[in-house]
Amino acid sequence: MREKNIYEKIAEKYNTTPEEVRREMQIAIDTGFDNPDPAVQEEWKKMTLKGERPTPEEVINYAVKKTKRKIKI
What we know:
The chain is mainly α.
């Protein structure tokens, strides 16, 4: 499933727009990224980032890859 489709499906379920879904995801990511807990920071370091902070697309891709490794697809 492509990121755009994910945003659309979530938006439809919660009666909002895909843009709002992405915006809220970014807010949640930024909040988590700012968490000073060393264990949390170690998890963020495992991600490949294009910028200073992860984007929703980067988090989705990371989660998919991590899930695939766990179930060995």
